[in-house]
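#structure-requests
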Amino acid sequence: MSDDAPPEPDRIDGAPHPRETERLFGQDTAQAAFLEAFNTGRLHHGWLLTGPRGVGKATLAWRIARFLLATPDAEDGGMFGDALPKSDSLTVPADHPVARRIAAGSDPGLYRITRSVNEKTGRLRDQIVADDVRKLNGFLHLSAADGGRRVVILDAADEMNIQAANALLKMLEEPPERTTLLLTSHQPARLLPTIRSRCRDLRLAPLSPSDLAAALQQAGVEDPPSEALAELAAGSVGAAMRLTHLNGLSLYAEILGILGSLPMLDRPRALKLADQVAARGAAEKLDLMLLLTDVALARLARTGATGRPPETEAAPGEAETFQRLSPDPHKARKWAKLAQEMSARAQHGRAVNLDPAALVLDMVFNMQSTAAR
């Protein structure tokens, strides 16, 4: 990708793009489910790949796309009408013509929908808009190549606005022949029920520590993840990459330090954190701070609900702080309610471009208020 090309919204900084990822770790069950549908001739036209952010949904979508465009249908038979052997893997060799074309972004049978660039501002949109989906019509009306199969990857369906979702729904209701739509979704409950009902769900699970380490090594992270990093990543390669490149462990330690000072708030520390994530070019760090705050409150509430802190500390002193602030189920409910309210306020604040420092301080004061009650 050239230096002046717009950033790809489905690429994590410092990691290869999902289309470039050779292996998919920890998702054998999901891959086997798709292969079983393909081999038995029950290939659904729409697939919803769900699971936590960063566990390999996009990588699986690209693996499926390569496989479908490179593999004849089982019922098509061979050159002399012989039945083809069943496929036992989604892997397509890197030197296969389809794999080379997809790597170059030039395969005529594949169409990709992500957030596009706003021509007026020159910046990536926050949502997938209706025009992004409607452009798919031109692709679907073209003469299909390579046996007539076409594949569409939409990453991520959660990012569609309501107009885009309705445009996609029309295509799912009347799917073109020999076309497979692959939708990734981190929060499928937020999609239109009619979209979910017209897709087959393919659930991906968080990665085990060993699979997480292997996936990170493939992505270019040489050192194995620490226990604290693995704990915060919660089985997500994407989360582990963001934590690594944005110094997320230190950021979480700062959040925990502020929680540890409650109810007597360490104001200088809170102001320093607000300034840090409000600096120019720190949008990614702000997003990570909001995510880690949500993680901290969830772990805090779970401590009170279960009567025990997390088995692995994600920062020094976490267990002691959580047991003090959330000693029982009653207090746990207070923290869980605050987490929901703060998440909604943060989403609204980001949507209306609220000053980041004000957003952070508002969150800190709400945590102080909850701790004092």
